[in-house]
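User: My collaborator sent over this chain with a note saying "see what the structure looks like." That's all I know about it. Can you take a look?
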Amino acid sequence: EEEPPKPSTRLSSSDSIASVSAQRRSEPAKLSKLVRGDLDWITMKCLEKDRGRRYETANGLAMDIQRYLADEPVNAGPPSRLYRMQKFVRRNRSGVVAAGLFLLALMGGVIGTTIGLVQAERARQTALRRLDQIEKSNDILASIFTDLDPRETEKDGENLHVILGRRLEKSAQQLQGEAIGEPLMVGNLQAKLGKSLMHLGHPKLAVTVLINAVSTLASVLGVSHVDTERCRCVLALAYRDAGHPDKARPLLESTTSALEAALGTNHPETLVSRINLAESYRDAREFDRALPLFVATVDRLEKVLGADHKETLEAQVNLALTYKHSGQMNKALPMFERALKGFEAKLGNDHADTLIARHNYAGGLREAMQFDKAIALLEPTLKAQEAKVGKDHRETLVTRTSLAVAYWESEKADLAIPLFEQNLKAFEVKLGVDHPDTFIARNNVAMVYKQTGKFDLALGLFEANLKGIEAKFGADDFDALTAHAEIGRTLMGLGNLSLALQHLERALQGFVSKSGKEHASALAIMADITQLHLAARRFADAETISRELLAIREKKKPDVWANYVAHSLVGAALTGLNRFAEAEPLLVSGYEGMKRRQDRVTARNRNVEIPKAIDRIVKLYDAWDKPDDAAKWKKELEVIQATATKP
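Assistant: Without extra context I'll predict from the sequence alone. Here is the result:
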């Protein structure tokens, strides 16, 4: 399909151009130029083979000629590039198709090759990056065990658990500083390191690592994913061990609910979470919430996992501890013994969990004042724990405290005091000066100093405890009020009665506000204030508070040792007021009641209170001018003092 030549082309190539130019009185070049352009396009539009591209009417042609004569733009014009291309394709259809297919194939090959190369490069970079991540994580983990020879560490005197804990701490710090890549892998590694740190006795560092683990897992898997909740549960336990029960409890409540929804109420992980939550209630002394949760969960564990499963046995120990702390020793001791036998049969006598169960059973025996049995269990337990997990591991420290208390309460002060002092230093280094366990350790040392007459040393420790507890937990915290009471008692020993009374009254006010006057701590402080008024010879004040104390004791538990101490205190106040006839029966009944019940209290307690009770009777008869009766009771006092166990 050929296009006709344009007029200017035919004219310039024509042999007759000279004659035509002459007829028009023009030169050939000028004539060709005149025709080229608009006249070419007008002519070519008229000759267009495509009907749709011609002038639609003769009038259209006339109008275009008119526009040319008026030097206006004409409608006719050169065909577009697209039009020329279409015309070319129509003329050369087969060739164009073949060339197009070849070009398409060539372009497809180039594009495919390019994409393949890009993908291959990306895969190579990803593989290299992944390999680098794996190498970094492997290097971090391998560093924990590099050159670690248990036999050599024993020769050097270092405990394997201590070394592992130190290396885990270093690895956790490296993990914090290394960008080792894929978030899920990082989160899982952080979770495992955090859990290991907690079990090796590094709760503070474990908290830091686990917070990052929870954040990482939540960003990858979602806040409510079961693996995120599992990690959050471990974080709660780390908070608890690090001395932040206020942060642990809300986490335990939320994770327990989440696990129940995700896994079911009888799933082992859910049941273990319920036990951890019950522990938090017990630690807060909310026994009405802790005990039902413990009892129900232990029953479920026995049915789901079996009576001899490790989780079931640990839950039994926790239930026994809750019975003990709530004063139900008749239920606590059998449960302790049952759990211990289960651990010994399941794991062996020297397993770490068996040692903990044995320590807890010994604590129950100590609470029941079976000190010889308790010491017989605690001494080998402490030795085994020091060898297995280290002298400064948290479980070792707790067992050492229990043994020290057992020594102290069985009048073996020379064995008890060094253990108390050793533990305080270890707790301060291990957990910090403001950790709750450190407060307890400091209080223990202060108590033995106070009771051995080292009042100045005791006062400094009690005051340090009060400052730390108030800063950490508030001025009305239970332990802060206890510290006020102990400061008051120590100041009494130093003879500073006015300041002592301020601390005792502050403690009493706090306990009454929190728990009422019938709370055991409030009643003990009322007895202290009575003795302070007696020492200050404020006998009327002593009578008022001691009678209130006796009324509460008689109503609450009339048959306990402390009730007869109250009898004796009222009698002493009445003696000071010269109301001898009223004082005599109270003083005598107080002494006799304590004597009959002396096996219910520690030797140290009876060695202090019974001589005081007899001395008050002697003073009564001296003041009443009854020398024979006074002499009789003086002999009784000599006998008691001669037979008393000396600390």
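A starting point for your reply to your collaborator: Confidence is low (pLDDT under 50) at residues 144-155.
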